[in-house]
Write a structure and sequence with these properties.
Elements (H helix, E strand, L loop, with lengths): L1 H15 L3 H9 L9 H9 L6 H13 L3 H10 L8 H21 L11 E5 L2 E2 L13 E10 L4 E9 L10 H7 L3 H5 L4 H14 L8 E5 L3 H13 L10 E4 H9 L8 H7 L11 H17 L8 E4 L2 E4 L20
Parallel strand pairs: 1-5, 5-6
Antiparallel strand pairs: 1-3, 2-3, 3-4, 6-7, 7-8
Helix pairs in contact: 1-4, 2-3, 3-6, 4-6, 5-6
């Protein structure tokens, strides 16, 4: 009974998740069929998911659901795919492989890509903290790291990191130093946030993000943008940067893609379930960002179409529905004063 239910869910996923948003763009004239994903093109040319390929995908899913862990690993190895991860991750990886293969066969060899963005920019701030933060504690960003992912080559192509000097409370707590590895000397010698943000903008502009290339920000949860960056911009009396108003919350993406509860989407848990080990020093902003990027790359390899799912609107955190048009972050601009 459980297997039948899983097969039915997989079949429904194939119908619902075959890039409804891309399909919508084609219908509204926002992109040509040549620019859309394989499944969107197929549904446009054959009627709403009427093509027999979807039944073939459902059959393949049923066969994969019945495979043991060893059979899954052997099949992945035979296909030269990654064999790491728990059983559910391997099943998802194999299903995604066959789905992509069959959809591509149905429209033409060498069909279009399913990537929404050319680059994904991973951010994981470190901020001032106490061992027991009071409710009104104002966290100030003390490390601004970024890791740039090329979604076409599936590689980390560049990194950025600067430490930041706190403006309200310049003295780091012993707890903060021990947790992050960021010393008092590091922040004393750093520039304040507005100056660092200017260099962030310049770094993004040099890579032609938002102009030549479509990109999106990605974080491990909601706090980096909705709390840390939001508070910091108020402290520094600058406007919240438009390029950071929408982002991919990888915890949501991971939970939805691998069908696991949100309680199992901590960084260490995601790495473990994907068969990966943490590299570097935990709570180093740059090391955390690199490991988050590794998760994102594995998800892209497994067939997940990472897309923006959260945004800030007048200081409020909101979800971005999957039916919303896919938009990249705007070209980065220098910080503007609130005054």
């Amino acid at each position: 009974m459980d297997e039948h239910k899983e097969n039915l869910n997989d079949f429904n996923d194939n119908l619902k998740m075959s890039n409804a948003s891309e399909n919508e763009k084609v219908c509204r004239g926002r992109s040509s069929p040549e620019e859309a994903s394989p499944s969107a093109v197929l549904s446009q040319t054959t009627g709403e998911f009427s093509d027999p390929v979807y039944k073939e995908i459902a059959v393949a899913n049923g066969q994969i659901n019945r495979m043991t862990r060893d059979e899954l690993r052997d099949k992945l190895e035979e296909l030269k795919l990654d064999t790491r991860g728990v059983k559910d991750v391997m099943k998802k990886r194999l299903k995604s492989h066959y789905k992509r293969q069959k959809l591509m066969e149905s429209i033409a060899a060498g069909g279009p890509t399913d990537r929404y963005y050319d680059y994904i920019c991973v951010v994981d701030f470190e901020a001032t903290c106490e061992e027991d933060n009071p409710p009104d504690f104002l966290h100030e960003i003390i490390e601004f790291p970024m890791v740039l992912i090329n979604t076409h080559t599936l590689e980390i192509t560049d990194t950025f990191r600067e430490y930041v000097k706190p403006e309200l409370n310049g003295q780091l707590s012993d707890f903060c130093v021990k947790l992050t590895g960021i010393t008092q000397k590091m922040v004393d010698e750093a520039d304040t946030f507005p100056t660092v943000l200017q260099r962030v903008v310049h770094w993004l502009q040099e890579r032609e993000l938002g102009t030549k290339y479509k990109y999106a920000m990605l974080t491990d949860g909601s706090w980096d943008m909705s709390k840390f960056l939001n508070i910091q911009c108020r402290v520094s009396r600058i406007r919240y940067p438009p390029f950071a108003k929408k982002w991919i919350n990888i915890r949501k993406s991971y939970g939805n893609f691998y069908k696991v509860p949100r309680t199992k989407t901590k960084l260490s848990t995601m790495l473990e379930k994907l068969g990966l080990k943490y590299e570097g020093r935990p709570h180093s902003g740059l090391d955390d960002s690199r490991n988050i990027a590794r998760i994102a790359l594995r998800m892209l390899q497994d067939g997940c179409q990472l897309r923006v799912n959260e945004r800030m609107h007048f200081g409020e955190l909101l979800a971005v529905p999957s039916s919303a048009p896919v938009e990249g972050a705007p070209p980065p601009q220098n910080p503007r004063s609130r005054d």
